[in-house]
Amino acid sequence: LSLMPHGLCHPQLEGLCSFLQLSTCPEPSLVRFCSWLLALSPALSHGSAAILAQQLFLRRVLALTQPPSRHLMAALTSFCSKYSHAFCRVLVAAVLQGPGEGAEQTKLMCELVEECLEPHSVQLVLSQVLEVPLSEKLLPVLQAVLGRQEVLPPELLDLLVLTLCQQAPAFATSLNFAKLVTAVLTVHQSQVS
User: Which domain of life is it from (predicted)?
Assistant: First the structure.
């Protein structure tokens, strides 16, 4: 296993993950494995971290029908503390494109945005949300992003404001949308005219 992050190409890493059955390993083992990953030096490459995010978490997160167990949450938090960019690229994109309401997935994304992700990853989540059609299920995610009160790049803030303006008629009766617009005006009042 010590060769995994550094000496393997991506197909070999995927094969090793499959051989080790990482996508279905018991959650306590998942926590231990993520702790081991954090201790690696040098850190995983972005590509390797993305493969591990997919192998370790994608199936589990997409299958959630109730809040994640404390073991799964511990593993997610641990992984995100060092590899949040790779996690967002793989998991957030899959959740955003997933069918249906995805209530538990949305709650999980909000919790990770509020408590775990680094500022640059929060911006990545915002840009990913703005790439898909806005829906009621995504409004809490945008609210969580704004709740971090991070300084947003002007182009990203402009895109957010433009999206909200364009989508306003479709959300005319949505309390969540009204809260979101209020949050934008409050958090970024100096940048929004």
Answer: Eukaryota
**186 vs 166: CA distance, rounded Å:** 20
Q: In angstroms, what is the C-alpha Rg of the chain?
A: 18
CATH class given for the domain over 10-188: mainly alpha
Token pair, residue 159, equals 């895109």
pTM: 0.81
Any idea of the CA torsion for 81, 82, 83, 85, to the nearest 10 degrees? Answer: 70
How crowded is the C-beta side of 56, counted as CA atoms within 13 Å? 30
Q: Sorting pLDDT into bands at 50, 70 and 90, what band is 12? A: low
**pLDDT at residue 6 in the model:** 46
Given this model, what pLDDT does residue 11 score? 61
Report whether 50 contacts 90 (CB < 8 A).
yes
Report, as an integer, the average pLDDT of 69-78: 94
Alpha-carbon distance of 63 to 83, in angstroms, equals 22
